[in-house]
Amino acid sequence: MAADHYETLGVPRSASAEDIKKAYRRLARELHPDVNPSPEAAERFKLVTHAYDVLSDPEQRRAYDQGGAMPGAAGFGGFSDIFETFFGQAAGFGGAGQSGPRPRAEKGQDALIRVEIELADVIFGAERELQVDTAVVCEVCGGSGCAPGTHPITCDVCRGSGSVQRQTRSLFGTVVTSHPCGSCQGYGTIIPSPCPNCQGQGRVRARRSVTVQIPAGIDAGTRLQLRGQGQAGPWGGPNGDLFVEFRIAHHDVFSRDGDDLLCTLEVAMADAVLGTTAKLQGLDGDIELEIRPGTQSGDVITVRGRGITKLRSSARGDLRVGVQVLIPTRLSGKERELISAFAQSHKSPPPALAEFQRGLFSRLRDRFFGS
User: Fold this and answer.
1) How many CB atoms lie within 10 A of CB 230?
2) Quick check: 177 pLDDT over 80?
3) What gap in Å lies between CA 68 and CA 62, rounded to an integer?
């Protein structure tokens, strides 16, 4: 059974606030660890300090006196017992039925990290090892918040109920209301010796590794939810969730359009006229392309099934290659003669400005996005 606070300080129940302060100072000078390093003195000092914390606060002292064995209250343990005698149960917070002290353990908060991935990771998916900084369960106390070898004790103000009753008089008579206990904050217990590693919270901040499976076809801004991988809850409460938001890094050659990949292929004028084959280094291996004779700038070559794997599917989008025909800007004398001879043998009507603009811009528009 917990010691009476008045007996702990060595003062009568009628002691004034000044008497209580003087008694505490006298005992503190005698029991403080800097003066008396013995374990017995340290335990007494904790009890003396707790007793002073309760009795030096008028509200807590009044609640303690009401909950203790008061002169003239024979047969009753305080307002809680009186109320229960007449109404069958003690009053709860706000006048409702009390459900007991609130639990210390609470669910931890969710956490969010942002991760940049490569475009190649999006094609087939990938596995990443991420380093996250979150609250984790304290290894010293195992989440209890108590120093090793100690445990929470029942609050001697509310007697473990988590609430105290107050009596007020009104026009309608005496009203008994219930409020959270100020000594234990409504928990019903007090941690007398907090864990030195987590300061009594049951959790500390630490860096840890989390393995993430990145699904194929994921898009920028998508968030992946990892249940139970977020912040650890206080006093051994369950973890929150971890959300991973993805950003896709810029690629110098390829870009994305939905499930399709886009790129540009530069083709020499002679190859565009005569036709040739080209080998591209794709994100998932080499790609053979056929450049047909007469290929024009703005033409798009589609390679089926070489795009991005569709989300939650094994099917893949396409690779669309836009052709850009390179026109030489410097010609030797011999090359100029050959081009002139070619032009003489292939007389074409002069281009009309409107038709030229419409044809050019249509090809640019349709190059990747279709008509």
Assistant:
1) 23
2) no
3) 10
> Which residue type occupies 303?
V
CA triple 8-14-18, angle to 5 deg: 75
Strand partners, 246: 115
Structure tokens at 262: 């886009």
Rounded CA Rg of the chain: 40
pLDDT in tens, 63-102: 788 764 333 333 333 433 333 333 333 333 333 344 688 8
Instruction: Sketch out the chain's domains with CATH numbers.
Output: 105-147+195-250 (2.60.260.20), 255-369 (2.60.260.20)
| Residues 112 and 168 sit within 8 Å (Cβ to Cβ) | no
In angstroms, what CA-CA distances link 3 with 61, 73, 223? Answer: 15, 20, 55
3-state secondary structure of 111: strand
Do 119 and 220 meet the contact criterion of CB atoms below 8 Å apart?
Answer: no
At 362, the pLDDT band (50, 70, 90 cuts) reads: low
Only one residue has tokens 């994305």, namely 256
The answer to whether residues 58 and 166 touch, using CB atoms and an 8 Å cutoff, is no
Per DSSP, what are the bridge partners of residue 236?
none
**Identity of the residue numbered 197:** N
Amino acid at the residue 273:
V
More confident of the two residues 98 and 244: 244
Among residues 232, 36, 53, 212, which one has the least CA distance to residue 136? 232
Rounded Cα distance between 236 and 135, Å, is: 11
DSSP string of 303-346? Answer: ETT-SPBPTTSS-B--EEEEEEEEPPS---HHHHHHHHHHHHHS
At 358, is the pLDDT very low, low, confident or very high (cuts 50, 70, 90)?
A: very low
Report pLDDT for 137.
95
pLDDT digits (tens, 9 = 90+) for 293-352: 999 999 999 999 999 999 888 899 999 999 999 988 888 888 888 888 877 777 666 655
- What whole-number distance in Å separates Cα of residue 18 and Cα of residue 30? 19
